[in-house]
Write a structure and sequence with these properties.
The structure is a single chain. This protein has about 475 residues and is of the alpha/beta class. The strands form six sheets. Strands 1, 2, 3, 4, 5, 6, 7 and 8 form an eight-stranded mixed beta sheet that branches. Helix 8 packs parallel to helix 9 and helix 12 runs parallel beside helix 14.
């Protein structure tokens, strides 16, 4: 199965082609995934559903009977790339009239009418909660009909499905713990495309993590739009739904997953400043296999902008969470998301973002210009009034400052001996491996006798702002 992962939102594996071994027989499926880690995880669910219905897989779109694109609506440029890809597939369809082209995910829900009827780019549209219906939707298309299901659910939709793992390395995997989002950030389309937040049974999460470890995986990332609001058998107000069943919050879930095996590293994404509790931080500090790394989006360093963004916290609250992280988990790696040029942002407010960056000194950051998205509160209520050239200038200042901080933090690692989980061979040479530290720093090193999936001790000898390099320390 060809999986193109274009992590426009929050991961380092942007544009990487992901594949799994072909299976013989049945219709051939080709799948591409764009956007966030949650989309990639969903693609593994889609693969499982269709393979169980007799589909085989292909890494070449030219061989496919069914082409599905798992889409992202978080930014306008992501949507445009997907449209261009659909046009390429439609040109191929002129030579293969029986080819089925469909879109999944966030863009599917938002643009179903445009893509099905007006632009006529797809035959099938399936929203994030309708993947179980894909075999039936494909049958409808084979019968000459357009097919669509974008209904959103209030229940966890795929907890009983064992995802087909599509990543290359077989070392790191994603495990979804929640779906949807109840945070109505004014710039974000996710609540409209993925629906209300719901949490997954913790025992199925633990079972999936255990199965991954037994299959050779050595790291899992627990995924949710807001992992800190994970609640099993509890309402959003903390009330118990069923008195006969236990409750589980995110800190407790972390401890349950950490107990799967001490050699299974645990990461999670994404945290929300308004919901992160000290209990979560203490759970991280308690367990060596929960990585000392937190992705804590700030978006802006100015409280007035944060209020306009409907983020639910102030600059002071955010810095309180940073202080707690540094106090409870010394040497913890912290990364963030930053949006520049939000509606009405003044130069002074932009400077506040630069100043909070200087206070925190993030290990890494995902940095973007504001892109207005339809249906959001910001689109309805505020004017996107910052000129493009101002947005670009501010973004360049943010990127330059972050590179300075990343380089300084990486230089501090030189001379240290760090435990690294080897994830893949280096892109430049099979004689070198790439792995990550507990703090999520990428490290390139000569492999010697090490293999992908091994934990190795590496002495750091050099760095750039993006990565470390070093050599294995012999026993």
């Amino acid at each position: 199965m060809g999986i193109v992962l274009d992590k426009d939102m929050d991961e380092s594996r942007q544009g990487e082609a992901i594949s799994m071994d072909n299976k013989e027989g049945g219709k051939k499926l080709y799948l591409e995934s764009y956007g966030c880690a949650m989309n990639f995880s969903d693609s593994e669910v889609v693969a499982s559903i269709l393979i169980n219905q007799g589909f085989s897989t292909t890494q070449e779109s030219a061989e496919a009977d069914v082409i599905l694109i798992n889409t992202c609506s978080i930014r306008e440029n992501a949507e445009q790339r997907i449209r261009n890809r659909l046009k390429q597939f439609n040109r191929a369809k002129k030579q293969r009239p029986g080819l089925v082209i469909g879109i999944l995910g966030c863009m599917a829900e938002r643009l179903k009418t445009n893509l099905l009827e007006e632009e006529k780019l797809v035959d099938l549209v399936a929203g994030p909660d309708s993947y179980r219906d894909l075999p039936g939707l494909i049958e409808e298309v084979d019968g000459g009909q357009k097919a669509v299901n974008v209904l959103l659910s209030r229940d966890e939709t795929y907890a009983d499905i064992s995802p087909v793992r599509l990543d290359k390395n077989g070392v790191t995997g994603f495990v979804s713990i929640t779906r949807g989002c109840d945070n109505m950030c004014s710039f974000c389309v996710v609540p409209f495309t993925r629906g209300r937040e719901r949490s997954r049974d913790p025992h199925t999460i633990v079972q999936e993590c255990g199965a991954l470890f037994n299959a050779g995986y050595r790291e899992v990332t627990l995924l949710g739009q807001n992992v800190d609001s994970y609640r099993w058998n509890m309402t959003s107000k903390g009330e118990i739904k069923d008195e006969t069943k236990p409750t589980t919050n995110f800190a407790q879930l972390l401890e349950m997953v950490a107990a799967v095996h001490p050699k299974l590293r645990i990461r999670f994404s994404t945290s929300h400043p308004k919901d992160m509790t000290d209990d979560v931080l203490h759970a991280i500090a308690k367990h060596d296999n929960i990585c000392n790394y937190i992705h804590l989006p700030v978006q802006s360093g100015n409280s007035d902008v944060l209020k306009k963004m409907n983020r639910g916290y102030t600059r002071e609250w955010y810095m309180n969470r940073i202080e707690a992280i540094n106090r409870i988990i010394p040497e913890c790696g912290i990364s963030t998301d930053i949006i520049t040029g939000f509606c009405g942002e003044t130069e002074e407010q932009h400077q506040d973002t630069l100043s909070i960056m200087r206070e925190v000194k993030y290990d890494a950051a995902y940095m973007y210009k504001y892109s207005e998205r339809p249906k959001t509160l910001a689109e309805r209520k505020y004017e996107d009034d910052i000129p493009e050239e101002v947005k670009q200038k501010r973004l360049e200042q943010i990127i330059e400052l972050q590179h300075t901080h990343s380089l300084a933090i990486n230089k501090e690692q030189i001379g240290k001996v760090l435990e690294v989980l080897a994830e893949t061979e280096s892109k430049r040479s099979s004689d070198r491996l790439m792995g990550r530290t507990d703090r999520n720093h990428k490290v390139i090193f000569d492999r010697k006798n090490a293999n992908v999936g091994d934990y190795v001790m590496v002495r750091i000898t050099d760095c750039t702002h993006a990565s470390l390099s070093g050599e294995i320390v012999e026993d």
